[in-house]
Amino acid sequence: MYGRAEPRQQPGYACEECRKKKLRCDRQRPQCGACANAQIPCEVNDRRVPRGPKKGSIGALRSRIVALERRLSTSQAEDGMTTDGHDLGLTVESPAKENVTTQFSLPDWDGQQQDHLPNNSISLAWGPPETAPHSPLLFPDPPILPTLATSYPSPKQSPTSVGDVFITDLTKADLIQIYFDRVHPIVPILNKPKTFKWITDGKSMSEAQQCLQYAILTAATAFSSQFGGFQETMYTKTRFMLDQLDLNGNDSLICHIEHVQAWILITFYEFTRTNYRRGWLSAGRVFRLVQFLRLYDLDSPKPLVPDCEDDPILLEEKRRTFWVAYCLDRFIGVSEGAPMTLSEEVVYTRLPCPDPEFQRGLVPQESFLAETMSSGEMRPYSPLAECVILVTICSRALSHKQICTIETLYSNIALDFSSRHDWLDGMLTRRLNNLQVTYPSLTVAENPMIIFSYMIAHAAVIYLCRIIETLSRLDQNQSLVWEFQERGLWAAQEIARLAKEHEHLGYFKAHTFMPLTIYLSATRLAKHLEVRKGEMEADQIENVEKSLHASIEALQKLQLVNNLASYYLQLLQQYT
C-alpha cells in the first residue's frame, strides 16, 4: 500500500502528440494508445535537451546582472553630473571616457576593483541606537560616491577605480541634521542658516564649500550608528577632495575659511574613527592653515580699506574656527606633553559669542582672552569660550611643569615657582566658581561642551597636583603635597562622576576628547591608591576603587563610538 510494485510511468519518452495535448502517454511502441485511438502517426523525439538550466548558468547570470547594474549606475552618474548642477560640484570620470573636464580632476590610476565595503556600523551594548531626527529640508540630487576600502587610497588606488554607492536626499538631510544636533555642539564653527543657504544652492558652490559639505556629511557618520555602511566611503572621498584642493593650489595667498573648517571636521573624524597618529598629522595641517589665514589676528586694529571685513557672521565663523583649532592644539599638547603650535601670546582675536545669538545673526562683541585671564570678573561666557579659557589654564599648568623641570635641572631651584603656581591655582578656582554660577548642575547635562569644560577644569587640578608631587623631593612642605593630592583625588572622582552621568545624554554626543580627561582621572585614582592606600580608611579605599572602576567602564563604553577611548585604554593598561 505504501509502495509501488511498478514504476509510476513507463520508461522511454512521451510522444510529441501527447506532449502537445498534455496527455499521459502510455509510451507503447510503435504507436501509443492515444495516437492509435485518434488514428494519427505517433512520433517520438529521443534527442530532447534535458530540463533545467545548465551547470554554472545561474552564476553567469548573476555576474551579468552585477555588471549591468554597474554600467547603469556609471551611466546615471555621468548623465546626472554633466547635465545637472545639483551634484555638489563633484564629477566622476569614467576611465574609458576621454576629454571630460572635471572640477576635481581625478587622475587615471590603475587599481583593483573592490565590490564590497565592510559594514562598520556600531551598536551600543547599553541601549538602543538613537535615530536621526527627520529634517524637513530636502537637498539636491544625491551625489554618487565611490565605495572604497577602509584605508586611505594610495596613488595606485583612485576613487574612480571602484564601484559607486548612492546617497538619497533623505539620507543626506538626516546626516546634516545629525551634524547640527551632535557635532555642532562640540565643534560650533558654522552658522546654520548660512550653511543651509549655500548647500541648497549647489550651482554656485565653490570648491572649498564642496569639500566642507562632504566633511559635514563625513563627520555626521562618526556620531551615528545607522550610517556605518558608507562611513569610510565618505571619509576617503573627502580626504581625496581636500588633498586635490591643496595640490591644485598655487602660490597665491588666497585661502577660504571653508577649507580650514573642512580640515577641522576631518581631523575630529580621524581622532574618533581612524587612529591617533592620523588625526595628529591632520591637526598639524589645520594649524598651518590657521596661521596662513592669520585667524589669530582677526580683531587687531586695521586701516579702513574698501575690502575690509564687513560681514559679522563670516567674521564670527572665522573666530570660532580659530578657537576650535586653538583648543585642538591644547588637547594634543596636554595629551602628549608637547609644546603648543598656536602661541597664546600673539592672539588678537576676540572670544566667541553665545551660539544662540550667532545663529540668529546677532554677534555681540566679546572680550579678548588676555583680558579674561587677567581679570577676575565673574560673568557668563559661551560654552566654547569657557572651554577656551579652561583649556588655556590647563596648558599653562603644563607649561608651568615644563618650566619647573628645566629650571630645576639648571639651577636646582625652581625660580618663581610659587608665584606661578599660586596664580594658576587662584585663576582655576575663580573659573570653577564662575562655571558653577553660570551653568549650575541642573543645566550641565543639557550641553556636552559644558560637561567637557568641567572635566577640563578638573584635569587642570590634576596637573597642578602632578607638579607638586614632582617637586616634592625638593620641597620640604609635605602638607602642601598632601593638600593637592586630596584636591587631585576630588577632581578625579568628579571626572568619573561626570563621565557616568554622560551616559544619560548619550556617548554619541560626547566631546571627542572626553576620553583624555577620563584617562587623567583614572591615572590619578590609581596613583592615589598606590601612594596613600596605607593611610586611608576602608570606606575611602572602596570609594576610590569605585571611581576608578567607573572611569575604566566609561572608557570601555566610549571605545565603541570613539577610537580615542581605545587609545587611552591601552595607555592605561601600560600605566597599571
Describe this structure in words.
The protein is mainly α. 56% of the residues lie in helices and 1% in strands. The protein has 20 helices and 2 strands. The chain has helices at residues 16-21, 33-38, 57-83, 169-183, 192-200, 207-221, 231-247, 257-273, 276-293, 312-336, 355-359, 369-374, 383-411, 417-438, 441-444, 448-470, 478-505, 514-532, 538-558, 563-575; strands spanning 144-146, 164-166. It has a two-stranded antiparallel sheet with strand order 1-2. Helix 7 (231-247) packs antiparallel against helix 8 and helix 17 (478-505) packs across helix 18. The radius of gyration is 33 Å and the shape is elongated. The N and C termini lie far apart (78 Å). Residues 80-164 have low confidence and may be disordered.
Spell out the blueprint of helices and strands.
Elements: H1 16-21, H2 33-38, H3 57-83, E1 144-146, E2 164-166, H4 169-183, H5 192-200, H6 207-221, H7 231-247, H8 257-273, H9 276-293, H10 312-336, H11 355-359, H12 369-374, H13 383-411, H14 417-438, H15 441-444, H16 448-470, H17 478-505, H18 514-532, H19 538-558, H20 563-575
Antiparallel strand pairs: 1-2
Helix pairs in contact: 4-6, 6-7, 6-8, 7-8, 8-9, 8-10, 9-10, 10-13, 13-14, 13-16, 14-16, 16-17, 16-18, 17-18, 17-19, 18-19, 18-20, 19-20
